[in-house]
Amino acid sequence: MKRRIPKQGLASPPPSSSSSVQRRVHSQRKDSRPFSWWLKWGLLALFVVFIVLPYTVKVLPNLIQHYVYAHRLRVPFFADLSRPDEFSLNHTINMYLTPEEGISLGVWHTVPASQWKEAQGKDLAWYQDSLGAGGPVFIYLHGNLGTRSAPHRMGVAKILSGLGYHVLVPDYRGFGDSTGEPTEDGLTTDALYLYNWVKARSRNSLIVIWGHSLGTGVATNMAVELVKQGVVLDGVILEGIFNAARQNIPFHPFIWYYWKYPGIGYLFKEPWAENKVVFPTEENLKQMRSPVLFLHSEDDHLVPISIPQQLHEVAASVQGAERVKMVTFEGSLGYLHNGLYRDPRLPGIIKEFVQSLEG
Q1: How far is CA 296 from CA 209, 240, 313, in A?
Q2: Which domain holds residue 130?
Q3: CATH number of the domain where residue 199 is located
């Protein structure tokens, strides 16, 4: 018979010295992987921060500008500013004006509320022709946040329309759906262009400029520019006025526009760094020759009441108390910086001011 050889057990033979060495080497390589990974990505991050970004800032400024401005966000999101009827302004038309090559300004024109039915379905030509009907025309220059669709701006437009006045509300360049970048000179140019556009179509109608917050700086700038041309505005309303010469403003008026991209200010130079904002409102008031009405809330959280009081004194010392008025609103009413349109007295105050201009 053939002798059967018993099978060996399943246990592996004792490891040789060579296999032990291989396992130790493999274990050491595995332990070193986290360090290698962090080193690799750390060097890449340093390369991006110290090489790529400085190169981008120096060589591709136009690309940076396009990123910051051409794709800006706006509130409310996805709002179609070309459709004012979607904002309950049913006797309003949207239009776009071109103050400079490459700049398009979005503007809303609201006709008097008494023309609500007549305005339905009318085109831009009808709205333009209506400016020459003889009624007062207001140009409302808004502040530094949001668009022409902001509730307090529409609130003012509805008050003025209810009083029988035309209202034109532009978004400066860089605001809303207007193209370009916001600068002090640019905003002043936009306001002057709109004024001249209205003047050419309104015949002898009264034109009043209403500036709010940042818009007060724009309004006084344009008033002085027109004085240099021998033109005196019919009237100016300054709501929530600030004074950069005496007031410590801790932020740039256009900072919201730049910082909407989180953290970008740490990496790139502000686009306006070479274009310092001045808005010499106090000096402008010394040169203006238009009747002025100051409106201010005593609890304004952005501009202390002492600022408009001081500016009122400056303007009155030049033109006299009869041509320069100031109306304040009690702080207990809670209007702060944007809420004056809610005051029931405001329509009467505005109507009285307009009547003084017509007289």
Answers
A1: 16, 5, 14
A2: 79-252+275-358
A3: 3.40.50.1820
Give me the chain's average pLDDT, please: 83
CA atoms within 13 A on the CB side of 4: 3
CA distance 266 to 16: 60
Nearest alpha-carbon partner for 238 in 217, 266, 254? 217
Number of folded domains that form the chain: 1
What is the per-residue pLDDT across 167-199, written as a single tens digit (0 to 9) for each?
Answer: 999 999 989 999 988 888 999 999 999 999 999
34 occurs within a structural domain: no
Residues acting as catalytic residues = 213, 300, 337
Look at residue 28 and tell me if it is in a domain. no
Tell me the Cα Rg of the chain.
Answer: 32
- What the block records as the tokens of 334 is 């809670």
Helix (H, G, I), strand (E, B) or coil at 105: strand
Give all strands of the β-sheet with 92-97 in edge-to-edge order: 92-97, 105-110, 166-170, 137-141, 207-212, 235-239, 292-297, 324-329
Nearest to 65 by CA among 187, 214, 179, 145: 179
The residues of the chain scoring below 50 in pLDDT are 1-2, 6-12, 15-16, 21, 25, 59-73, 268, 271-272
pTM of the model: 0.77
Summarised one tens digit per residue, pLDDT across range 26-75 is 555 555 566 676 777 777 777 766 666 565 555 444 444 443 333 344 55
Cβ–Cβ < 8 Å for 142, 93: no
Q: What is the dihedral of CA 336, 251, 150, 146, to 10 degrees?
A: -170
Which residue, chain included where needed, has tokens 């071109």? 98
Taking the C-alpha atoms of residue 341 and residue 160, their distance in angstroms, rounded to an integer, is 10
Q: Evaluate whether residue 102 is within a structural domain.
A: yes
What is the three-class DSSP state of 122? Answer: coil
Q: Among candidates 267, 277, 211, which has minimal Cα distance to 238?
A: 211
Q: Is residue 233 part of a domain?
A: yes
Please report, in angstroms and rounded to a whole number, the separation of the first and last CA atoms in the chain: 139
State the Cα–Cα distance between residues 140 and 150, nearest whole angstrom.
Answer: 13
